[in-house]
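>> Question from a student workshop board

For tomorrow's exercise we were told to take the sequence and the ligand below, predict the bound structure, and bring the output to class. My setup keeps failing. Could a helper post the expected result so I can at least see what it should look like? The ligand is adenosine-5'-triphosphate.
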Amino acid sequence: MLSWRPRRGYALAVGLMSGTSLDGVDAAVVRLEGEGLDTTAQLMHFHTRPYEEPLQEALRRLCDPAQSDVQTICGMNAWLGERFADAVLEAVREAGLTMDEIDFVSSHGQTIWHMPEPPAGAPYLAPSTLQLGDLAVIAARTGKPTVGDFRPADLAVGGQGAPLVPYGDLVLLRHPERGRLLQNIGGIGNCTVLPAGADPDDVFGFDTGPGNMVIDHVVQRLSEGKLRFDEGGELAARGTPDSRLLAELLLHPYFLQPPPKSTGRELFGAAYAESLLKHAAELGLSDADTIATATALTARSIADACRYLVMPRCRIDEIIVSGGGAHNRTLLRQLAELLPELRVLSSGEIGLDSDAKEAVLFALLGYHFLLGIPNNLPKVTGASRPALLGKLALP
Ligand SMILES: Nc1ncnc2c1ncn2[C@@H]1O[C@H](COP(=O)(O)OP(=O)(O)OP(=O)(O)O)[C@@H](O)[C@H]1O
Ligand SMILES: CC(=O)N[C@H]1[C@@H]2OC[C@@H](O2)[C@@H](O)[C@@H]1O[C@H](C)C(=O)O
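>> Workshop helper replied:
Here is what the output should look like for this input. Compare the format with yours to find the bug.
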C-alpha cells in the first residue's frame, strides 16, 4: 500500500520510548539505511525527558483499573501526544538538526494495560493492549509522519503483542559465531535469544518477569517517597537476600511458564510488591534485606529463565544487559554470580547504548513499517504469521 522510500538513500528518524517504569520518555535521533536484515541504525543523539513526580503518580493511577476512568484515559491520550512531540522537538534541537531534516517519528506509546489473555469467562473482552500518546497529535505538532501503535497488529494475528524488541535485536545485534542473550531490564525484564548466526526462524524471546518495577515500588515505599529507585543498587548492596521470601516469590507461576509469554504491571505491579513488603515485615526483615531480596528476585528470575527456558534450546556465550537496570551494580553482580559460565556485558560494550537501545529499535520498527517490511517475529510473539506492525498518522 505504502510506496515510501527514504528521499536521500537514508532516513533520519526520531524513535520514542516511554516504558513500563513510567520514568519518562526517551527520544533517539537515528540515521537508518538499507533494508531487511541489512538495515543499519546509527544513533546520532539521545535525549530523555523525565516525567515529573505528579505525572508519574497520575500514570500509576491510570494503570490501575480501580483508580482509572475513561475521562482521564481520553484526555491523557492526547496530552501525552503533546509531551511526546515536545521530546521530539527538543531531541532534534539538541542534535543540532532542524525538523526539515527529519523524515518521520516512530513512537512506542505509554502502555496502560496489556491483556494478551483476557480473564476466562469475562464477556466482551478480546486479547488487547493499550498504548497512549495520540499519533495524530505528535504528527500535527512535529509536522512529521508518525508511526506507532505497533502491538495491536501482532495481537490481531494471534500473537502476544510483545516483546517486539527481538525483531530489532535480530537486525542489529546478531553475531556470526557467538550465541547472545540480550536482556533488557526496564520496568519489566525481557530477553531476546540470538543463536550464533541467527536467522529469523531461530530467534526467540519473552518477558522474564519484573525488571525494576518491584525494586522501585519497594524502595519508594520504604523511603516514604523520598527515593524513586535504588541508585547503583547501593541500598541492596547493604543487605542480604532472604532465601525464604525469595523462594516464596519465585513460586509465581509466570516464571516457569514456557514462552511465548509477556507480562506487565497487571501481574507484577503494586499488589505484587505490596505482598512482598507484607511478607518481609512478617519475617522481620530490615529495609536493606527487603530491597536485596526484591533485587535478587529480578536476578533469579532472569538467571532461571536463561538456565531452564533458554539454554536447553540454544548455546549461549554471552548475556548483554540493557535498560535502566544495567545501572544497578548489585543486580549485575547477582546475575554474574548466578550465571558464572557466561560473560555479562552491557549493550554499550557491543555498540548500542544501553539507555537508548529501545528508542533506537522503535525507530527501526517504524522504518520497516514505512518500507512495507513485516516487522514482527511470529516465533517470539506466537503470532500465526508475519505482519506489518504499526499505524501511520500524517501531519
Ligand atoms: N542509576 C541507576 N541505578 C539503579 N537503577 C537505575 C538507575 N537508572 C535507572 N534505573 C532503573 O531503571 C528504571 C528505568 O529503566 P528503563 O528506562 O529501561 O525502563 P522502561 O523503558 O520504562 O521499561 P520497559 O523497558 O520495561 O518498558 C528506573 O525505574 C530504575 O529502577
Ligand atoms: C505491553 C508492553 O508495553 N510491554 C513492554 C514491557 O516492557 C518490557 C516488556 O514489558 C516488553 O514486553 C515490552 O516492551 C518492549 C519494548 C518490547 O516490546 O520488546
